[in-house]
Specification:
It is a single chain. With 143 residues, the chain is mainly α. It has 7 helices and 2 strands; from the N terminus they run ββααααααα. The chain has a two-stranded antiparallel ribbon. Helix 3 packs across helix 4.
């Protein structure tokens, strides 16, 4: 693609530019900033919609006391049990156990603090998902 043809479709990047490569007038590849490309923006929006659905499902499960609030925070951060266990430096079975509401409620302050720090929330937000700000999907107006 020629340098002048690089798409500049505003989208999910919210005004940020990404680097793409294009051919200049001399036939050399050069880096060109791009605001986005409509097909890529559409697929990114669709991916964010799936993520938002996963977060909402986790939120409902927490509110129904089916899982601990940890599941909601994992969904918000796009983590699975293995990834969270690896970041926490604990065994997978312990994270899986902490997803049970009755076990999560008994966690000591040290473990709650570690989870909260890793997930970039306060201990209060970790335990009460109603205190967590709604996730904003980039590039879309929120209700």
């Amino acid at each position: 693609m020629l340098k002048e043809e690089v798409p500049q479709d505003q989208g999910i990047a919210d005004g940020l530019k990404e680097v793409t490569y294009a051919v200049n007038g001399n036939g050399d590849y050069v880096m060109v900033p791009s605001a986005g490309w409509e097909p890529k923006n559409i697929s990114n929006y669709q991916a964010w919609e799936v993520i938002a659905e996963q977060i909402e499902t986790a939120r409902c499960q927490v509110l129904n006391n089916e899982v601990s609030p940890l599941a909601y925070h994992m969904a918000r951060n796009q983590m699975d049990i293995g990834l969270l266990a690896q970041y926490m430096g604990i065994m997978r079975w312990r994270v899986k156990r902490h997803l049970k509401p009755q076990i999560f409620k008994k966690l000591n302050s040290n473990m709650l603090n570690r989870y909260a720090s890793l997930l970039k929330v306060t201990e209060e937000q970790l335990q009460d998902i109603s205190l967590v700000e709604k996730l904003r999907i980039p590039g879309q107006d929120q209700e």
